[in-house]
Amino acid sequence: MGHVTAQTPTPTPPPTTSVQIINATSVPAISLYVNGRENYPNFPQALLTSDAPIPLLDTRYVAVNKKTGAQAESDVVKFQANANQSLVIMGDFSTQTPPGALPQPDQPLGKTEKPYPPNVVFKVFQHKRMSADRLVRLLVINGMPGKRLKFTAGNDARDILPGESVEFVEQPVFFTYQADAGDQQIAVTVRQSGIMRDAIVIFYLKNGEPAFMRAFENTVLSSPES
């Protein structure tokens, strides 16, 4: 008598996503908890993590100011599956303005009986997957609490409020941009080639003064500038 063998279905692997976490806070260093676990106990400003695939699509973060111990917790971040994304952490842990957005220029400070929760913003940027034979783009993010940013690409000048971003498309692979950050003028040189394409320039405060870092949408490299 013949036998029939049951076919065991191949289990479907859980969905994953690629996320690089960028510390653009305006404090020297944080520790970062991911879903209750201290994954990054010493995470200096202007550095970032690997964007290797992870299975955590729904994630809650807690950033801790290493100097003061102040804590800021994110809402549940829902990442897209099978995508490339950056989570940019911005803010200075100040408690004089409502949470959810960075302090704006000329914004009056709050006068409440109790201080607000520490001001830290967790913002996700989705990265488009496009062919490598096109012109590159540049994403500029103003992570400086309370400071204006004017960023100029050739004849294209944009004003960027704290916590906001602007994308410049069809950019040269090597170019020096001009930034007016607070009361400082800063030259920002960006080189893009090979896998180091589609740059991200993020401004933050270092010791209270404007600074910037470079990152890329599809690599783990960055370069802080003072």
Per-chain topology:
Blueprint: E1 17-25, E2 29-34, E3 37-44, E4 53-54, E5 58-59, E6 61-65, E7 71-73, E8 77-78, E9 84-91, E10 120-127, E11 136-142, E12 149-153, E13 156-160, E14 165-171, E15 174-181, E16 184-191, E17 199-206, E18 209-216, E19 222-225
Parallel strand pairs: 1-9, 11-17
Antiparallel strand pairs: 1-4, 2-3, 2-6, 5-8, 6-7, 9-10, 11-14, 12-13, 12-15, 15-16, 17-18, 18-19
- Kindly state the percentage of residues in helix: under 10%
Number of domains: 1
Q: Tally of extended strands?
A: 19
For the residues shown, what is the average pLDDT? 88
What is the straight-line distance between the termini?
80 Å
Contiguous runs where pLDDT drops below 50 for at least 5 residues: 219-223
Please tell me what the overall shape is. flat
Structural class: mainly beta
Biggest sheet features? 5 strands, mixed
Strand content: over 45%
Give the SSE string: EEEEEEEEEEEEEEEEEEE
